[in-house]
Amino acid sequence: MSVSKAAPKGGLEGIVAGDSAIGYLDGEKGELRYCGYLIKDLADHSNFVETVWLLWHLELPNKAQLEELRTSLLAERALPGIVYDVLKTVAQHQEPMDALRTAVSAMSADDVPGEVTDRRSNLRRGIRLTAKFPTIIAAHERLRQGKKPLEPRSDLSHAGNFLYMLTGEVPHPEEERMFDTCLVLHAEHGFNASTFAARVTAATLADLYAAITSAIGTLKGPLHGGANTAVMQMLLEMGSVANVEPYLDRILARGGKVMGFGHRVYKVMDPRALILKDFSQRLAKVKNEPRWYEMSAKLEALMKARKGIDVNVDFFSASTYYYMGIRPELYTTIFALSRIAGWVAHVLEQYGNNRLIRPEANWIGAAPRPYVPLGQR
Ligand code: COA
Questions:
Q1: Over the stretch 123-174, which tens digit does the pLDDT of each residue have?
Q2: pLDDT in tens, 9-63
Q3: Cβ(262) to ligand 1 under 6 A?
Q4: How far is the CA of 168 from the centre of ligand 1 (A)?
Q5: If we measure between CA atoms, which residue out of 91, 182, 100, 170 comes closest to residue 135?
Q6: Probe ligand 1: pick from 194, 219, 223, 229, max atoms within 8 Å of CB?
Q7: Which of 27, 202, 222, 372 has its CB surrounded by the most CB atoms within 10 Å?
Q8: Which residue's C-alpha comes closest to atom 29 of ligand 1?
Q9: To 10 degrees, what angle do helices 208-219 and 96-107 make?
Q10: What is 227-323's CATH topology?
Q11: How far does the centroid of ligand 1 lie from the alpha carbon of residue 223, in Å?
């Protein structure tokens, strides 16, 4: 029996796993494009709702299309009773990412039945999910704090309404715009782990809710979306600029990973990180609290000098959200709040040209052998 095949590098590194027209990454040049548009152009000129349309339709919307999507998202912000009840039940028992995963599972109970792969039905489901993510995350957070969840406000933008539901205060327009741009930056990133998990689930012809639940579970880990929470926990533990270097020395001495650094695809600086670094620096000035930015900048320089490794998207998003007054435990859910756009886009693409995703393993186990009855072992 010859079953051994050439094993790829671990973690499917360098493997092209399918075609896609959604997110393009060039890790050597540090380039990211959504449907052909540079991420910097989208960050400067677009907004989250427009980006959602772009990712789902592969073209920028005209005015009427944008307005239609905005209105549909507005109409879907409130939570069905079943989801609210589930959140109340799990609030004290589940962390934010776990509660989001549970709530999305519960959302399928409240949806009308429909063809699993039907594009129109899935666009409608995508709108439901995208609109309700902010309400779920904010409601869970407030329930955890022993506060009453706030009703979504229809006079606020997608980003502004989320910050309002979380804090009870309407954000400053500049902060609202910055947060909206953070959502644009995190919306899509090719065949990253959570998106790939969503596609694998969709490829079995399981429904969109199942695919998004898989994706949320996958985003949670600290090697993926969980890193932004871990970055802020690290900065809080360091506590001061003077402590950055000894803290880093201790991690590197034990061969540990520094959260917010390194990337499977980017060999140079992640273009999103440059924008987020600027946000963190600007907020440090506005809030008159330079510490978190200065610590981050020092750690960035030390890691580059010692290991030659650049920051990734999670590094400066951590201090940016912290300056906005958001608790670190929520950062990965904010990633999900944005990445839902990319996940839905990829599930639509997968259903549009589906084939079961089913790779093979390189055999490293026992040689063929006869079964040994229990009494002879
Ligand atoms: N801190 C310290 N060393 C790191 C590192 C980090 N954050 N990221 C990579 N390295 C080092 C590894 O130790 C390894 O060194 P070695 O070859 O001497 O053993 C080398 O760089 C390659 O790392 P590896 O983990 O094999 O790369 P990967 O492509 O499998 O992993 C990540 C990519 C993102 C998972 C990895 O960089 C990481 O764990 N980063 C921290 C978590 C994080 O920020 N995740 C968010 C990603 S957007």
A1: 999 999 999 999 999 999 999 999 999 999 999 999 999 999 999 999 999 9
A2: 789 999 999 999 999 999 999 999 999 999 999 999 999 999 999 999 999 999 9
A3: yes
A4: 38
A5: 100
A6: 223
A7: 202
A8: 264
A9: 180
A10: Cytochrome p450-Terp; domain 2 (1.10.230)
A11: 8
Residues 39 and 50: their CA atoms lie apart, in Å, by 13
- Which protein residue's CA is at the shortest distance from atom 3 of ligand 1? 257
**Highest CATH level, class, for 23-221+327-352:** mainly alpha
In testing the pocket of ligand 1, which one of 263, 266, 314 has its CB within 8 Å of the most ligand atoms? 263
pLDDT band, very low/low/confident/very high, at 5 (cuts 50, 70, 90): low
8 Å CB contact between 336 and 216:
yes
Residue 260 near ligand 1, beta carbon < 6 Å = yes
Tens digit of each residue's pLDDT (9 = 90 or more) over 242-276: 999 999 999 999 999 999 999 999 999 999 999 99
Measure Cα distances from 112 to 69, 109, 116, 227 in Å.
20, 8, 11, 36
Pocket of ligand 1 contains residue 339 by CB under 6 Å: no
* Cβ of 263 less than 6 Å from ligand 1: yes
- Give the CB-side neighbour count of residue 243, counting CA atoms within 13 A: 10
Per-residue DSSP letter, 375: G
Residues that are catalytic = 263, 314
